[in-house]
Specification:
The structure is a homodimer. Chain A is about 35% helix and about 15% strand. In chain A, a hairpin with a 2-residue loop joins β5 (about 200) and β6. Chain A has one domain (about 5-120, about 210-385): Peroxisomal Thiolase, Chain A, domain 1, CATH 3.40.47. The first copy, chain A, is globular, with a radius of gyration of 19 Å. In chain A, the strands form 2 sheets. The first copy, chain A, has a 9-stranded mixed beta sheet with strand order 3-2-4-7-1-8-11-10-9, sandwiched between helices. The first copy, chain A, is α/β, with parallel strands linked by helices. In chain A, α3 packs across α12 (about 335-350) and α9 (about 290-300) crosses α10 (about 305-310). The interface between A and B is large, with 56 and 57 residues.
Amino acid sequence: MGHRAAIVGAGHTRFGALNEGPRALLRSAVDAAFASVDRGAEPSDVEAAFLATLGFGGWQIGNSAAVLGEEAGITGVPATRVENACASGGFALRAAVEAVASGASELVLVAGVEKMTDVPNARRRYWLGVSGDTEWERLAGLTFAGVYGLIASRYLYEHHLGPEALAAVAVKNHENGALNPNAHFRKPVRPEQVASAPRVADPLGLYDCCPVSDGAAAVLVVPADRARRFTDTPVYVDGLGASSDYLAVQERPSLTQFAASRRAAEQAFRSAGCERSTVSFLEVHDCFTIAELLALEDLGFAAPGEAGRMTLAGDTRRTGRLPVNPDGGLKAKGHPIGATGVGQAYEAFCQLRGAAGERQVPGASRALTHNVGGAGATATVTIYAAG
Amino acid sequence: MGHRAAIVGAGHTRFGALNEGPRALLRSAVDAAFASVDRGAEPSDVEAAFLATLGFGGWQIGNSAAVLGEEAGITGVPATRVENACASGGFALRAAVEAVASGASELVLVAGVEKMTDVPNARRRYWLGVSGDTEWERLAGLTFAGVYGLIASRYLYEHHLGPEALAAVAVKNHENGALNPNAHFRKPVRPEQVASAPRVADPLGLYDCCPVSDGAAAVLVVPADRARRFTDTPVYVDGLGASSDYLAVQERPSLTQFAASRRAAEQAFRSAGCERSTVSFLEVHDCFTIAELLALEDLGFAAPGEAGRMTLAGDTRRTGRLPVNPDGGLKAKGHPIGATGVGQAYEAFCQLRGAAGERQVPGASRALTHNVGGAGATATVTIYAAG
């Protein structure tokens, strides 16, 4: 299969507890994306835009795509908000790739943003809560941390593992985040710190959970055959996969497999026409440490139960056999909901151009990103190749 | 230009104050869409789905695309929520057409739903309010009825018209709604009733405002060259246009023109390669009576100020020279936010197949639908042709 589209520019704010509001965050990420285009691109060249956001700071939850238009200087362009909870960014990127592949648009802006830290806790819990199953989970008091705690318990039980397999994910992602200037957490943590942290939803402690972050990210997508007008080093989008599942985990045959991630990965590899062995590194949706282990297995990079052992063995470290989340992942880089999936595309863009600085994965030529909405109810997988 | 895609099935619930919740409404509309496909189509044939919704009954605002998957019996399919306020349906249809045009999917389901009547007023006002500009309008107490009241005042002043031009829209749309079994209001109203109704935001009275409705609609979209596998009478999507504008009306050069609608119409006619004179009827976004007058002018079917006179002359009645909103429009059929744009596509499908029953526009061969988000901040225009 040929390339489906190309990314020719990408921008990313810091993720963390920031002073800026969502408008300023969007503007920073979009400006940085334009500035990164080697041969230049202007807002006036943009023909369509997609915004990924869940709560948009709480004050513009509806019609917020128009705000992207305002802040990007592209008022007048068709702008569409895509919302699939924490997978909003992945689905927005997918819609953008389909827009360029359909011939409808030549230069498409995809931006994701969330401003979470100045929203009162109760309202933030409301937004996040309404992204999980309401009838069988939320009304029974089950939070996302609770769902992932149940999944983690089952995973450790099924595979005769202890919580150190989870802690190894946190330690590795904090190690990577420490090298990423955009990361929410830039401090390494030791396994003992993870083990002794306050419990959130047993076996998940504080260091097993991603933080509440503000931030934005943006990428510029063009038809593959136009990419070299913008840069000599585009990053191609070769494979797209996406799927959905029942919202409530109780409706699914297994607690320790996300069928949506599995189907999305199969579709993405089929559409890219490449083998897993050709992938240089993964960016997976580690909203909780257990989620990274599930992802490695669901995406076909580890047999059931092996992801824990691979992580403990150091295989997924930045310098390991299969680097996972070299940017620190949701765990350490942070998780501003709508920005997360777009931020993964940013990382693929930087790494595949050899421009990831201290966190560079040596020789990276193919990347896979994996973005999940809710506890596996929606998922996207995207495969990228260096130009 | 050739056809971009085709609609081969469509379903629509009643709009109104209904007993059913959003899940049941979605199921009814989707089931009806499948049942309407002449040579049959099954949920298992669907390769992608788009859900248009703003509040989804308030209990599943995030990740609600997964609920569409559950209710349509297509769990496992990529499902994406698109939200552009009241234009969500138009933008979801656009994303679906791009998905089939890109070759990514062959049979795509587009569904829109809103369950508004059992949401407490305050929360509903919150959802609706956050679709307008927050900083300059909402925080100053300006509601949507208020914005459209200002626009109406200015329009009547600029064009030396009295409120009877607005009332004529209400009378005409109620007349059409009375013939539509799915309409929220099926009672004709007299001009005197419109004139003497309680004021909402002067010069807009109660009968100038669309109601708060529950309801759902669904359409099935395929690549144009596959349409005849499903039916001998597909309805083709020939033209797509969409645009955006500043959220706040104060940022725009004119109160009485929506630049987003204008640009969307130009784009749609350019992409369809047809003239306005070939259009048999329009479905326009008449959230308030004034909005229908603006639409006729913005879409290029009337000179500034002429829409009022055309309406008073009866030109836009179902049996007039240019029928507008033969289904009753938002004004009489109702306005369940996410369902509205998809419901317009349903009407195009029925009319262009000669299957609109008592409200049929005789000899309809080309239709235009127009869907607006907020007070003109986002807009889509779609042009359809009979098969």
